[in-house]
């Protein structure tokens, strides 16, 4: 249960203005799949130096009509989110975002267990990248990356001060 409390703590650090009904609903329906996440990591985590794709989702997260493919990947014992835009000439890497913890995390949302989703967390009708992780104390964190159109990049909404 400590993990869940920490998760709520993370969520509350989001700016009050952006702490919308959408996030509240997600928070309420969210429970951690702590043990299944660990089992997955033990099964797949032996070769930690290799690049391993942990999860992939596709969606319109930059709202420019171009689909993006979002990949949660482990390499060199770190976890990253890679964002590719899918254009006529194939896929182009537009962002690589380090997740601040080294263990993959899972959560339950609407009855599904996932380690990576696109979900409109702040209620602006644009989905954010939601990627849970566990820190070295196996405390769960919910990392939310939001697209900044002016900067054409993503930033971590849930970053601690
Ligand atoms: Ca949003």
Q: Could you please describe the fold and organization of this structure?
A:
With 161 residues, the chain is an alpha+beta fold. It has one domain. 19% of the residues lie in helices and 42% in strands. It is built from three helices and twelve strands. It has helices spanning 2-12, 21-28, 34-44; strands at residues 31-32, 52-59, 68-75, 78-87, 90-98, 103-104, 107-109, 112-114, 117-119, 128-134, 140-148, 153-156. Strands 6, 9, 10, 11 and 12 form a five-stranded antiparallel β-sheet that branches. Strands 2-3-4-5 form a four-stranded antiparallel β-sheet, with no helix packed on it. The protein has a three-stranded antiparallel β-sheet with strand order 1-7-8. Strand 4 (78-87) and strand 5 form a beta hairpin. The chain is globular. Bound molecules: calcium ion. Calcium ion binds at residues 120-122, 124, 126, 128.
Helix coverage percent: 10-25%
Number of folding domains?
1
| Alpha-beta classification | alpha+beta
Query: How would you characterize the largest beta sheet?
Result: 5 strands, antiparallel
Number of helices: 3
Shape descriptor reads globular
Beta-strand content bin: 35-45%
Instruction: Tell me the total number of β-strands.
Output: 12
Order of helices and strands: HHEHEEEEEEEEEEE
How large is the radius of gyration? 15 Å
In this entry the ligands are: calcium ion
| N-C termini distance | 24 Å
Q: Which residues sit in consecutive blocks of at least 5 with pLDDT less than 50?
A: 1-9, 11-22, 27-35
Average pLDDT across residues? 78
């Amino acid at each position: 249960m400590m993990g869940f409390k920490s998760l709520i703590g993370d969520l509350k650090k989001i700016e009050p203005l952006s702490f919308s009904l959408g996030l509240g609903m997600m928070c309420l329906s969210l429970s951690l799949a702590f043990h299944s996440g660990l089992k997955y990591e033990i099964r797949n985590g032996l070769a930690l130096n290799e690049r391993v794709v942990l999860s992939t989702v596709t969606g319109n997260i930059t709202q420019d009509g171009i689909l993006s493919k979002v990949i949660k990947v482990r390499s060199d014992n770190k976890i990253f989110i890679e964002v590719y835009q899918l254009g006529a000439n194939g896929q182009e890497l537009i962002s690589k975002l380090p997740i601040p913890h080294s263990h993959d995390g899972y959560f339950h949302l609407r009855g599904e267990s996932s380690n990576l989703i696109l979900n409109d967390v702040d209620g602006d009708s644009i989905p954010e990248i939601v990627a849970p992780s566990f820190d070295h104390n196996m405390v769960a964190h919910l990392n939310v990356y939001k697209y900044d159109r002016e900067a054409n990049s993503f930033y971590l909404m849930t970053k601690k001060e």
